[in-house]
Structures are given as structure tokens and as C-alpha cells.
């Protein structure tokens, strides 16, 4: 059971994030496709589901409308600028590589097509994550994956993850991002799904824990980037180096963070 609710965090490894309290200047309505309806309201937030490709509506609704469990985490703050946060969010292999090389976690990720990634959280959960929709403040993902544990060996399922971001300024003037994640998971095994009333506490607890761990790992990565940008850049270029495009982005972004006039630098403790 703990299985599927774990898919979301690794895909987002770096998982990962969103902020509550935002008002989207969009028409609030459910999006319909044939006989399927996808609600825009999730955990007190409104998502622009009317912009979702109609061919995805039924697949998403099959999870959100018949979920095994639903979890909400956040808002949790990540010590990253909006541009860095979004770059890592949209390039999971970069985030997971840095997290792994810096010893912050065991996440793995590989690109498997346009906006499509394979991920593993290092704790028995793996799957495919497909980005369905994105804008400056929101992301919507569809996941299919499996989990192996002592309690429930090889459990498979699906998940829909909605993520909301809110760029903020910290008290020292540094940029950060508050994030909130809503995750709906559905087990493939009908027998296990039928026991949801008994297993929900276990599933919900694991789901919340996994989501929180993913977002907090991203925050730890942001803290290292602020305090030791040279170390992050070294890990990014140490053979085998990350792709040139990613190294170029990191050099520019970390260079700004290491500028003496940048608030992150002024408030950074001496190593």
C-alpha cells in the first residue's frame, strides 16, 4: 500500500512543490471529456484543469475520482530562487544527480521522452512520471509505478500529483519558494484497494512522509547551493559531467548566488 503513494516524491525529487493561498485568474470550472469530469478544486486550491489536454482527462479522473488515498503536504519552503526551483523541477535527472553526488539522498531519474521520466526513490519505489500540464505556478503529473517492501511486496498503482508554487522573500532578503503538493493514489490490486478503510492510516502516513521527505530534500539541496555553490558546481562538472546545457545553467545561477552583492551571499555562514 505504501507503494503508490510514494511515486510522487521521487518524480519530483527534487522532487518536487507548491504554495497555498494563490488565486488563479482563470475561469473556475470542471473540464469535461466525453463522460469524464476533472474538478479544478483540490485541497482548497484551484488548478487550471480546463487547460489539460482532453485526451488525459479520463485517465486523470479515474484516479482522482476513485482514489485509494489522498495526501496533502505543505506549504513547505525550499531555499531556491524561482528560476532554479523550476529548472530542477522540470529536469529531474539534474536534481537527482546533484542530490546523489552531494550525499543528500538516493534518488535516481532518467528522461524517457518529452516531459516523461523514470524515477526511483532508493527505498523500493519506482515508476514513470508524465508531466501533463505546467505554468509558472502549477504542475500536474500522472504517474504509474510499483513498490516493494516487507509488508506489501510488489504493489503497483497510479497517482495524480498537483503541485503549486509561490515565490517568496525570506527575512534576510533571499529568494525562496513555498510549495504545496496534493497526491491522489490508486492501487491496481482490487483486493488491497478494497481494504482501504483498514489500511488508510498506513497508506496516508507513508504518503505524507514520502511527500514531505521529497520536498525537504530539495530544500537541503537549496541550502547547499547557497552556502557552497563551488561544491555544487564541482559535483556538476566532475566526470561524468552533467550535460553542457545543465552545467551552463548552474554556472550562471550559482554565479549569481555567489555574487557579493547577492543577499544569499551576505547572509551565508563561512564554511
| Helicity, as a percent range | 25-40%
General form: globular
Helices and strands, in N-to-C order? HEEEEHEHHEEEEEEHHHHH
The spatial strand order of the largest sheet comes to 5-11-10-9-8-7-6
> What is the total number of structural domains?
1
Q: Superfamily at the CATH H level?
A: START domain
Mean pLDDT: 77
Query: Count of DSSP helices?
Result: 9
CATH class: Alpha Beta
Separation of termini?
A: 43 Å
Q: How many strand segments?
A: 11
- Radius of gyration based on Cα positions: 19 Å
- What do we call the CATH topology? Alpha-D-Glucose-1,6-Bisphosphate, Chain A, domain 4
Report the major sheet.
7 strands, antiparallel
Give the uncertain stretches in residue-range form.
1-33, 258-271
CATH-derived architecture: 2-Layer Sandwich
Notes on the structure:
37% of the residues lie in helices and 29% in strands. With 271 residues, it is α+β, with helices and mostly antiparallel strands. The chain has one domain: START domain (Alpha-D-Glucose-1,6-Bisphosphate, Chain A, domain 4, 2-Layer Sandwich). The chain has a seven-stranded antiparallel β-sheet, with helices on both faces. The chain has a two-stranded antiparallel ribbon with strand order 1-2. Helix 6 crosses helix 7 (229-237) and helix 7 packs antiparallel against helix 8.
